[in-house]
Design a protein that fits this description.
Radius of gyration of chain A: 27 Å
Helix content of chain A: 55-70%
CATH class of the largest domain in chain A: Alpha Beta
Shape of chain A: globular
CATH topology of the largest domain in chain A: Aminopeptidase
Domain Malonyl-CoA decarboxylase N-terminal (chains A, B, C, D): 88-175
Oligomer: homotetramer
Order of helices and strands of chain A: HHHHHHHHHHEHHEEHHEHEHHHHEHEHH
Number of strands of chain A: 7
Organism (chains A, B, C, D): Thalassospira profundimaris
CATH architecture of the largest domain in chain A: 3-Layer(aba) Sandwich
Largest interface: C-D, 63 and 62 residues
CATH superfamily of the largest domain in chain A: Malonyl-CoA decarboxylase, catalytic domain
Largest sheet of chain A: 5 strands, mixed
Protein name (chains A, B, C, D): Malonyl-CoA decarboxylase
Pfam families (chains A, B, C, D): MCD, MCD_N
Domain Malonyl-CoA decarboxylase C-terminal (chains A, B, C, D): 178-435
Chain lengths: 463, 463, 463, 463
């Protein structure tokens, strides 16, 4: 420990105090009660960090601490995390000293050495504690769920945001794509796992075990990534339908029509439709697997079913209607939208769909003209609407698939007939086509120059 | 990229050039030939780092680069690694700028943010390349073996030492003890795995498949740690004999006497003797598993064989004779040894064992008096000889087991009758006893105060 | 082939014809159409039996024949089976000849030889065909299901009854208890397997996946026997609840009260209640596994949960009310029942429960006096009512558990509150206790002398 | 039990006594000692058969009896088996009675019923005991090994031969080909299994673990059949080399020339050479799997390695030299051999190879003329030499492969250079080609008409 340890501790405590004072958690507690357990935690954490009793004992202590943590309510958890991040952070005196040496070093090699030292000094002691929670029976899952909590809490206090970022760094290192295992999920998979699909499906909710069984029928495929540290938990999974020609209606794919369930169906399929991709772990937000998943699954399918010729998604357009609303608002308030006249006109025509008393509530109530307008707007939106800050596609699903190198292939009127589909995009869905020979080029054009690849059919909608 | 990119690149190239110029590798190559492939590597690495074609493509590129690397000879590999570390290091302008901001920040929270940023900036781009080699079919093993190479090469050039340290950081994060799996190894394990035990056994060489089979007999146990990223490779393994009372002779344990091989043997055993612990991966040097392995195995054995009452090693004393040599040299040259008179006298008496024409070459040729002297010296050495720099036990095996919290239990004359045992310690072996109730206390006493735990039997040898 | 082959064939055909003529199947078919495919079958079967093209080809032919058979409707299947059993039966000339030799043999050894020969001659060629269906992908399951069909059809024609008995002999040999594997079924078992539990549960229907999950909770156990030839199909399974003290109400066990689902429940349990045993394969009727299952499961539970002290069933009394009805009828018609006066009186009192307008429809509508009468009758019935032909207990469930060596432990008023329970036994259930130290003695007493073991509590009900 | 039980028992005892009296086993025992244990066995067997204590208990009793049996020496085992077969055989009174009924039955259906009854009565009680030994931990292996013993002992006493035949019937039913599992064996298989390959290899002995590893190299394949009842024991296994063109020398295949071990070898291979097929279980003699194994392996290889175009054996000609010896003897004694003149002449020329002082001891010492003679004789022998009794090929290996539908493809001079090869066939080996499109036809021609298929190359040798 450096000699300025006392100063640093005082600083830390002051910082911690400020956070705590403002925290609603603490205000609701009698401070005295809380003081006792905080003192206990301090001792326990310090013991772990000092490796009292050796490395194995330190791990056991960390596990014991983790068990205690799990028994806390949300308030207690936040209190513990505040204490951890505020009192067991980086040693700033050491950091400052290394920086000074680095600045005075006249040799690149010496600098390199100091950089390694500095990097290590910048890893806060609290990360050691987090890392050792990995020894809990479900340790990795514990940390993933902890980050999910921190993502909800990080606005509350800067300390929790720091903790969240640090944990993300740790998880990103552990969840390197090289460690993930692709597994096919079938009706022969453990019920405890299938139950999680039902819970985690984020795009088209699974209604029942019968619905799930239909999605695992012989003409379907389901794949997920798993990590060896939490082998019972899917990280992300994709549902695929094997069909003839590109499918445009998700209702047709999901409805459990027994008549097309027979085994021969798969044989004549020439197209794989990726109709649902769901992230299963909130705590892994920002650590991306979707791109790898799609391409690994395409590879698996090509090997097993060489008769497949096309790989396409059937995707929602989640932000279309929100974007339309915003543009209409701007037009109402006479702001400059920067949109072409024809688009403004089409938007205007759709106005009566979106008020409190819309003229239609589902695709088949819409007039032919309105339908044409919506398709026109959807095509323009997908091909031209961008986020100002980043220049990327406005629609988040479009951005994901375009980054992956797919192209916009087809719009599907009444692709999703349920109320959620209507609320997002008047039921319009879109196919993104994954043509392996074009993926790199599409990606480069999109990422480098913002060019969005689309089929001639879609482009024609704009003429 | 920062605007000072050019300057930095020039700096980097200058540094690289200095290293390369001095390197015997390059001198032996025509520089022109080598220039071409270096340019190709530069482009390939830059493409990977720029994520050209997207994340999935970047991984594929890294894998291709890894394949190329594997086909290089040692000279080519070093050339590639030099280039990688020298030209794709940390961006020092960015680092300097963040440091400046940090020093001027007047808010602890702002500093915390800058620390995260700095830490991330200090991770050199070359680590990204290393990490992506993980996507090679045997990627983790590739990196472990690469570090083994770097450990041999790091003296050659500072750059390779930096790379080695960086790779160690990466591997230490991946090989967190929480991810390791303990597996029992039996005669039913795959031959391809057992073959590795034969290759990796470092303490008592396995002579043949019959010898190996004997070590996996019903009265034996063998356990190893495995990592999910390289499931066919043991990381470290331990061999255990189940016997009655503490065993003193490794010859008795290893000799394949068929007569004591019957199944009933295990039933009456009350003691587990850990007679060999071998690290199997040179590339994981410094990332420690041995402590965890011993304690996990003790736990497994206790659960499966509740009749076991004692857990002890049977260990060599590898540095005893080297230490004696050194002390005798010092005495010959009339230097101050700091040793007690009695020890100096005993050493003097052993002198004629160690010259070019020793009076004895194996334990049973030794006089009763010499034997007493050696046991006396061995006991003193284990209990008192320390490394000056660190204050830890002079003997490396003693240091390992004492750090783990064991105590010195018994010395065994003629414990190891082969020539290697004679060269290390005149055939004397030692038992370290793992008494679970004392482990933490022993560890703390040893690590904190340098106190070495020993049984009264061993202590009596010094009276 | 023997020279009297022609005669035999004519006999066979005559026999076959008689059966066919009477069979409703054939009458509904135009005979000509059916003739063609019968000729084809004859040729195919003969080819298989002659091993045309070698053993491997013969198996393939049999498999092809099996595939054809699977595509037939029930009428077609029966037609095929008639043909098979009638035209490919035992060679009676050979049988007669061996019998003659046997009768004239004057040497026991010679007789022994002839017996082996005769036994082999008595295995009809059609069994070879059945056996070779085992090479179909799900061959064993195919044969098990075929026997299930034959059990339904055997009354139709003597030939099908012969086939059924023959198939039973084959299956009994294959399903030797030594080949069966006991597996624990949990919520981690494949959904495709769990789905079968839902379908096959014969005692207390499983209402939903939630109901199933409850039955696989930590305080429950479920075990099944499997055969390696049909690894996805349970043969028989048992559901067990771990509770404190003997449970009397199945409703309490099955209802999904979340509050008692926590993990600690299992810890304090001292009693295992076997509350449901279901045979899953109709085609294995008469090949008994239940006895082995119960005792293997008791063994497993004792090993895993040494705190368990009692093993008991909670069982229905399925034939109680039917028996009461019969006795009342006899009394009404003034027949001699042979029952004690007190029983006749109690029956008489229960009369108004069983008419078309019963005074009560569930346990809690019943008067105290009626309840006492029912319990009295149930106890008497279990301890005394016997099948005249066999002397075994009248109640089939009682017979099963008494043969297994259990004793009648306790009667439970309102043990099963649903309408099925009421229809069987006015909701009364019974515990059969498996006391391992008494099992052999109880079995011998019951099987040898018809003595039924019962607790003093149950016996007291009769005083 | 029938009323004539006493008579039958007397008969049985008389029969038993005769066998026992003649048996060397019993003569060497004091009869009194042996009497005691025989009485104990009688009681134990009778208890099992009577199912005392129920079916589960009976199984346990049988298992206990089996354990006792395993501890007996060979004499004791035979004594037990004599007693079992002689005293617990078929009830001949019952058999005789059913036969009488059968002969008087005037109805085919009634006869059919009696046949089932008779068949069941002809299954001796001792088989029940054998079958229940299946409940021993390694029960199936126990019975297989018991039959191996009985095959050695059956000449001793008619009873043991009866037992052997009965056990064969039981094992043949259990080892139905439909239950066998084909597994590929690799260097990753358990050492305990690989050790068995070394022990069981019957054609070309495996010299060492290195030799074995070579036979499991990437350009090799090894497959075995397993039965679920003895999963650790191969039943039969085949070793295959993947090469370019048909291989003629087994030495070239087996020698561990490291230079051709690289992975690319397998890629260019167009031919699979089956160079060794070994039955691993003596106790399954006469229950044939070889035909199925070869064809299943051909199927596996075609699927995995579509570039394979030919499937051929490289086989010894084990009985060639013995046949030549016999013919030469006959010629010496002026008997009629029935051989063509040219063959007699060639035989005569080979005479000096076969005397006590042969002119050559290995292929390369032989003159060109002698070589031509041997090849001529080998070709004639393979194509024409038949067993008089059966009409099948004289050479047993030829008979096996010809029955399987292969053809004689090529003779290979110096195919097997070791002394064993010389003793069998002067080192000549032969390829049998498995051409899937010809297998059925070849089989039918061989089995039906004794026609042996051969390539034109081989036929030309006879011109």
């Amino acid at each position: 420990m450096s000699q300025t340890f006392l100063d640093r501790t005082i600083d830390n405590l002051r910082f911690a105090w400020r956070e705590l004072r403002d925290s609603s958690v603490v205000r609701s507690l009698g401070l005295d009660e809380s003081q006792n357990r905080q003192d206990r935690w301090r001792r326990q954490i310090a013991d772990c960090l000092a490796r009292r009793g050796g490395a194995v004992s330190a791990r056991s202590r960390a596990a014991a601490l983790g068990h205690d943590f799990l028994r806390l309510d949300d308030g207690g958890k936040r209190e513990f995390l505040h204490l951890l991040v505020n009192e067991f952070g980086v040693d700033r005196d050491r950091v400052g000293a290394i920086m000074a040496d680095w600045n005075m070093a006249d040799d690149l090699a010496e600098q390199a050495l100091l950089e390694t030292e500095l990097r290590s000094e910048l890893v806060p002691p609290f990360r050691t504690i987090l890392k050792e929670f990995n020894s809990l029976p479900q340790g990795v899952k514990f940390l993933v769920d902890l980050r999910a909590d921190l993502l909800r809490w990080r606005k509350e206090a800067p300390g929790l945001a720091i903790l969240e970022r640090d944990l993300k760094e740790l998880l990103a290192s552990w969840f390197d794509i090289g460690f993930l295992e692709l597994q096919r999920i079938t009706w022969n998979s453990p019920a405890a796992l299938l139950e999680k699909l039902i819970a985690y499906e984020a795009v088209h909710a699974i209604q029942s075990w019968d619905d799930l069984k239909r999605r695992l029928a012989p003409d379907r495929r389901c794949f997920a990534f798993f990590h060896p540290g939490m082998p019972d938990e899917p990280l992300i999974f994709v549902e695929v339908a094997l069909v003839s020609g590109i499918a445009g209606s998700v209702d047709a794919l999901i409805q459990s029509d027994e008549s097309d369930q027979d085994d021969d169906e798969a044989v004549v399929a020439d197209t794989a439709i990726f109709y649902s991709i769901s992230n299963a772990q909130a705590g892994l937000a920002g650590i991306s697997f979707g791109d790898f998943l799609i391409k690994r699954v395409v590879g698996e399918l090509q090997r097993d079913l060489p008769e497949l010729k096309q790989f396409s998604t059937l995707s929602p357009i989640p932000a279309l209607r929100g974007w339309m609303d915003k543009q209409l608002d701007a037009m109402t308030q006479k702001h400059e939208t920067g949109l072409p006249k024809a688009i403004e006109a089409a938007l205007h025509d759709c106005d009566d769909l979106m008020g409190p008393k819309p003229v239609a509530r589902q695709p088949n109530e819409v007039s032919e003209r309105t339908r044409a307008n919506i398709e026109y707007l959807a095509a323009w939106y997908l091909l031209n609407a961008k986020r100002i800050e980043t220049g990327s596609a406005f629609d988040p699903v479009a951005h994901f698939h375009l980054t992956n190198g797919s192209r916009i292939e087809r719009l599907n009127w009444n692709g999703n007939g349920n109320s959620n589909g209507w609320m997002q995009s008047f039921g319009v869905m879109v196919n993104y086509l994954y043509d392996l020979s074009m993926i790199e080029k599409n990606h480069e054009n999109y990422v480098g120059q913002g060019k969005i690849a689309a089929s001639s059919v879609v482009k024609r909608l704009l003429r």
